[in-house]
Amino acid sequence: MHCNGLGIAHRQNHPESMDPMNRNAFLRRSLTVAGALATAPLLASARLFLNPSSDPAPEMIDLALPPVLFPQAPLPYAYDALEPHVDARTMELHYTKHHAKYVKEVADAIAEENIAATSAEDFFAHVSGYSQKARNNGGGAWNHDLYWRVMKPGGSGEPLGALRDAMDSSFGDFATFKTKFTEAGMKRFGSGWAWLVKDGGKLAIGSTPNQDNPLMDVSEFKGTPLLGMDVWEHAYYLNYQNKRDEYIGHFLQVIDWDEVSRRFA
Ligand code: MN
């Protein structure tokens, strides 16, 4: 055990000297990078690099790598594609700064806490057992991924088919849905999200604080999210300042109802 600063740096940077749990987390991250290129020679190189002694350690190379629970997928459209409803500067900052930070921080938390969740749903179902860092950033990473996907340039008008039938059955009509969804966003004090969820065969509208979501065991409002709307000020302040109601009105015009229907099915 090294006691000086160099020793600490050494321990942090060399998987051989890490304790087994941290070492596995380190290797998962390292091999995720290698896996992005997915070639056997590269993995062999990684193995040589990680095992300079050439002592075979097969348990260190696990090709059945655990999934990256919260990847940051490419934005499905250009930063300016939702103009004038969502301005390009807000979109760029939101995706490259806010969302990217949640993705990085939750990956760090998963490694630090040796979280062994097998899916995002599994992670959220047990989130009460993790740190605030894991909860806030896991929610932030997942919620924004949904948010990007339920919007599209020009929107898609109104919901149709089975989703529309369920919405009419649950809320009366589409206009009433919009009123209730807007209220959910307006009544969320401070930062949070408004949601349309499926719970069994029923639909419900609600909201959560901070980066919580309805999949979390700690959430008072539960269900499978079909539609999520960010009402943090960072989602609208550059373009709409304090006028959250205006932002919500514009968000409703760019919803991809085909995507929401796919999640309902
Ligand atoms: Mn946000």
> Under CATH, the topology of the domain at 88-264 is which?
minor pseudopilin epsh fold
What is the CATH superfamily label of the domain at 88-264? Iron/manganese superoxide dismutase, C-terminal domain
Strand content: 5-15%
> Strand pairing plus helix content: what structural class?
mainly alpha
Distance N to C terminus: 56 Å
How many helices? The count is: 11
Q: Sum up the overall morphology in one term.
A: globular
**Largest beta-sheet details:** 3 strands, antiparallel
Mean pLDDT, as a whole number? 84
Within the largest sheet, what's the order of strands?
A: 2-1-3
* CATH level-1 class of the domain at 88-264: Alpha Beta
What would you note in describing this structure?
The chain is mainly alpha-helical and 265 residues long. It has a domain at 88-264: minor pseudopilin epsh fold, CATH 3.55.40. The protein has eleven helices and three strands; from the N terminus they run H-H-H-H-H-H-H-H-E-E-E-H-H-H. The protein has helices at 5-13, 20-37, 40-50, 88-112, 120-125, 132-149, 161-171, 174-187, 237-240, 244-251, 257-264; strands at residues 192-199, 202-209, 224-230. The chain is globular. It starts with a helix and ends with a helix. Manganese (II) ion is lined by residues 94, 98, 144, 230, 232, 234-235.
